[in-house]
Amino acid sequence: MPALPGPLITSSPDCAGGTPVFAGTRVPVQSLIDYFEAEHPLDHFLDEFPSVTREPAAAVLELAKRALITPAA
After folding, report:
1. CA 18: distance to chain centroid?
2. DSSP state letters, 20-54
3. For a tag on the chain, would you pick the N or C end, based on fewer CB atoms within 10 A?
4. Where are the domains of the chain?
5. Residue 64 Ramachandran class (φ > 0 left, ψ -120 to 50 alpha, else beta)
6. CA–CA gap between residue 38 and residue 68 (Å, rounded)
7. Which fold has domain 11-65?
8. What is the pLDDT of residues 11-52, one digit of tens each?
9. 60 to 6, 39, 69: CA distances (angstroms)
């Protein structure tokens, strides 16, 4: 997967009370996790949150995967 320009996730007290959101949106990253926990497909999430595109959503999932499966140094 090619690198995306800029950050994937941002957090600011001025946006959603500091909750981590997809950069350039007000969509909490937690929403993506919630959709998967409810067994909804990625396309359903993207339909519900059109300000988030497939590339950043997939990149955030890849970051989560790496964080979970990469052995500690």
Report:
1. 15
2. -EETTS--BHHHHHHHHHTT--HHHHHHH-TTS-H
3. C
4. 11-65
5. alpha
6. 20
7. Arc Repressor Mutant, subunit A (1.10.10)
8. 887 776 788 999 999 999 999 999 999 999 999 999 999 999
9. 13, 17, 14
Instruction: Report d(CA 56, CA 12) in Å as an integer.
Output: 19
Name the residue type at position 71: P
The label of the residue with tokens 């964080």 reads 67
**Phi, then psi, of 24 in degrees rounded to 5:** 80, 5
**Which pTM value belongs to this model?**
0.79
Q: What is the residue whose two structure tokens read 């957090």?
A: 11
Which residues, at least 6 apart from 7, have a Cβ–Cβ distance to it below 8 Å? 23
